[in-house]
Amino acid sequence: MQQKILLLGGSAQQLVAIQAAKELGYHTVLCDYLPDNPGQHVADKFYCVSTTDVEAVYEVAAAEEVDGILAYASDPAALPSAIVAERLGLPTNPSASVEVLGVKHSWRRFLMDNGFACPKSYSFPPDASLDVILENTGSFAFPLVVKPTDSSGSKGITILNSWAGFEDAVAYADVFSRNKILLVEEYIERGYPAVIGGDIFVWDGKVVLFGEMECLRDMVKSPLIPIGEKWPPQLNGLQKERIHSELQRVVTALDIRFGEMNVEILLDKDDNVHFLELGPRAGGNMIPIQLGDAYCVDLVKANVLAAMGIRPDFVDLPLEPNQGCYMHYVLHSYQSGLFKNIEIDQWARKFVYREVIYKKDGDGVEVFDNAAKALGIIFLNFPTAKDMEYFCQNHDSLIKINLK
Q1: What H or E segment, with its residue span, contains residue 339?
Q2: Cα dihedral sign for 58, 59, 62, 65?
Q3: How does DSSP classify residue 62?
Q4: Which of 9, 154, 206, 261 sits in a 20 to 30 Å window from 285, CA-based?
Q5: Of 290, 191, 288, the residue nearest 235 (C-alpha)
Q6: What are the residue ranges of helices labelled H in 114-216?
Q7: Is 37:10 a contact under the CB 8 Å cutoff?
Q8: pLDDT for 153
């Protein structure tokens, strides 16, 4: 009989996982709470069910008798996927570990308890009084970061240089919080200039692919939101060694057995590794595709196979990275309006090898203040790091978003 896989999420970025599962010969069952999600037109069967509703997802999985569950590139669906898979005896990482990774205050507590570098932090409900918060953060040094504990894509985050504006920061974080637990923590001063992003892939408890990259951010208009990832990073040997060692230490401590994980790391002035995030799922903005291009592997299919309990082929092969520099760039607008087209400078155009545009002529465009408001993604392959850096320094003039 044809094996079945349950996929949690059918957004534009998640289509690739549904398509990969079909190419591998699996019967695809999709859950998504949005009735207009594009994935329903690709999957073999669709249920209009929230991917965060554990009992509803369990009912679908049990009724369909699926052989595996995959929450591809989805933070909110990662824990329900693990819980349901455990109940049904399907391949999964421990749900308790997925929960630690998916909620920021639990993650911070894990890091502190296990001797990892970690900023001072304090979690609180949105209605907590400022007096109580001040009492518990008296030793904290500014700047401080206020954020939800269960969101992704830099949604709901504010950096404060004083307590002025704290109430507004709490209200903003609360908008993106499902569990109604917020976090205030010290801002980590970077030694290495870029945030280290990217993904890793784990098999049998061992990191078999280290796909760290440098995050590109618009430091003027959206300093907290990634607008690209650059590979390879310009890390020295010691910095790489420390990052790899600490990543493996987390994977071992949490008994992570398999799958792709999304990384967000800072190196301080002493090259200590500070984990901002280690998401228990493949990275957003199509990071698996970019890394797959760079390392000549199909990471999307590897995610599907791992969820079905099958060892991906690349695990047993030496990784042979491609030549050149690979990056993706998130198309975005700081004005609202109606979408017309994307205009790419002639110099930059010759490096673009893939475009994924989410909008069509006349669609509404919102101001880019979180990752969910991206207009699409372009992938670029540069022959030299110098060319890639030129693009990164001049992306605003090289890429134009035209609105009606």
Answers
A1: strand 337-344
A2: negative
A3: H
A4: 206
A5: 191
A6: 130-136, 166-175
A7: yes
A8: 66
